[in-house]
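Need a sequence for this fold. Nothing fancy.
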């Protein structure tokens, strides 16, 4: 499938010292990325600090877990599973129907930071992902507090 350059740029590979290796590969590929996606929703479902975030998600969350894995796969430089199924993510546009303020952003980041703390032991990779997820979460805000 041939994607426009802006989509390719969105999913660009990142530099890792002297080698050009994706974050997807650095994490350990499909199994690791799937684990991150699933653990994120496990935390959301069971951590009281994410109760408002959980409330905005349809139940059961089987389909959304898969979509999140597919998105992360491409976003981290791996297979473009989400794009192949649904087209460009257009994350902000797809989330406009939902009230996302700093409270929702913080709950989302709380879950993601816990996942990173649990599953990403390489400190350089951990920090890179934390920065990227934080940037992504800030971008999603579409409502005032």
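Here you go.
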């Amino acid at each position: 499938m041939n994607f426009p350059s802006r989509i390719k740029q969105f999913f660009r590979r990142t530099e890792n010292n002297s080698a050009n290796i994706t974050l997807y590969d650095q994490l350990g590929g499909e199994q690791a990325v799937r684990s991150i996606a699933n653990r994120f929703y496990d935390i959301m479902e069971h951590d009281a600090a994410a109760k408002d975030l959980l409330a905005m998600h349809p139940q059961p969350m089987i389909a959304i877990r898969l979509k999140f894995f597919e998105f992360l796969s491409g976003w981290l430089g791996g297979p473009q599973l989400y794009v192949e199924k649904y087209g460009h993510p257009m994350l902000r546009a797809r989330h406009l129907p939902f009230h996302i303020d700093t409270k929702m952003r913080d709950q989302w980041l709380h879950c993601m930071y816990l996942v990173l703390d649990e599953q990403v032991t390489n400190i350089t990779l951990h920090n890179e992902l934390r920065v990227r997820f934080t940037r992504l979460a800030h971008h999603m805000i579409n409502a005032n507090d």
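For context: Confidence is low (pLDDT under 50) at residues 11-18.
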